[in-house]
């Protein structure tokens, strides 16, 4: 073989070897958490098109929704999960935690990619409070060889943190250590709380500086979060809130992450 051809072949084989060692390229995901207040804005109107518009504008791949009605009379007996899926063109799963006004109320997940299966887990309930839950959706993301678990939740709002801490402990036990997973929701607690401290023994937050989500018109406090695990598989690109400040009583929080394939 001529010297120049031999050199070219060697260079090509070296390039293949380096590519194999590097593996597949990281996959970018946009993850949104949004407490939609059953679609009722601060102007008192129930308007799912406004909610859907905010979701579409965020170009989210995965969305965790809290305070979602399904056939509840106060919001027109509409199947809100199905309607939001229609308006956004996304796949949907719903986890009803309580019976309410002829329907159910709970959390939902929207996904740009098919949801393979989902399961709703009821969380610990203290002192006759509202039943809370965590919805776990199993998805397959193109470019990722593994199943991704996406968890949507909404913790207790009362002043005592006992139920929130118990809910964090329950969620920490749900997911195996090497499973890639994202957790998003309204945790009704601050970053410095015992609730977040316990979650962060297993999960990592996408932001460490304050990104306030409530009150919606002039946010001063962050109680909505996106978290990920395991920490060595993910890189946070950026996290921010959406500008929409009328459609709900929370700002939606959007995190863009990069997942390193296994």
Q: Can you give keywords for this protein?
A:
262 residues; six-stranded mixed beta sheet; alpha+beta; 5 helices; Deoxyribonuclease I, Chain A; 12 strands
Describe the protein.
The protein has 262 residues and is α+β, with helices and mostly antiparallel strands. It has one domain: 4-Layer Sandwich (Deoxyribonuclease I, Chain A). It is 22% helix and 34% strand. A six-stranded mixed sheet has the order 3-4-2-1-12-11. A six-stranded mixed sheet has the order 5-6-7-8-10-9, with no helix packed on it. The longest helix is centred in the first third of the chain and has 20 residues, at 3-22. It is globular. The model is unreliable at 7-22 (pLDDT under 50).
Q: How would you concisely characterize the structure shown here?
A:
This protein has 262 residues and is α+β, with helices and mostly antiparallel strands. The protein is built from five helices and twelve strands. α2 links the parallel β1 and β2.
């Amino acid at each position: 073989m001529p010297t120049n051809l031999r050199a070219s072949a060697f260079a090509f084989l070296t390039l293949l070897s380096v590519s194999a060692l590097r593996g597949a390229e990281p996959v970018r995901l946009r993850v949104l958490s949004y407490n939609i207040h059953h679609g009722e804005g601060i102007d008192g109107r129930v308007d799912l098109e406004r909610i859907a518009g905010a979701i579409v504008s965020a170009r989210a791949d995965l969305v965790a929704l809290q305070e979602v009605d399904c056939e509840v009379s106060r919001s027109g007996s509409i199947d809100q999960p199905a309607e939001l899926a229609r308006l956004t063109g996304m796949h949907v799963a719903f986890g009803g935690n309580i019976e309410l006004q002829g329907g159910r109320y709970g959390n939902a997940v929207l996904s740009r990619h098919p949801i393979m299966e989902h399961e709703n887990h009821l969380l610990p309930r203290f002192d006759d409070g509202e039943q809370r839950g965590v919805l776990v959706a199993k998805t397959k993301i193109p470019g990722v060889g593994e199943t991704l678990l996406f968890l949507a939740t909404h913790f207790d709002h009362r002043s005592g943190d006992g139920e929130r801490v118990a809910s964090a402990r329950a969620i920490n036990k749900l997911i195996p250590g090497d499973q890639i997973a994202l957790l998003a929701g309204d945790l009704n607690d601050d970053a410095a709380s015992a609730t977040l401290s316990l979650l962060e023994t297993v999960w990592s937050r996408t932001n460490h500086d304050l990104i306030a989500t409530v009150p919606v018109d002039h946010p001063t406090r962050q109680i909505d979060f996106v978290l990920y695990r395991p920490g060595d598989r993910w890189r946070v690109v950026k996290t921010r809130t959406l500008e929409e400040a009328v459609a709900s009583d929370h700002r939606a929080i959007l995190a863009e992450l990069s997942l390193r394939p296994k």
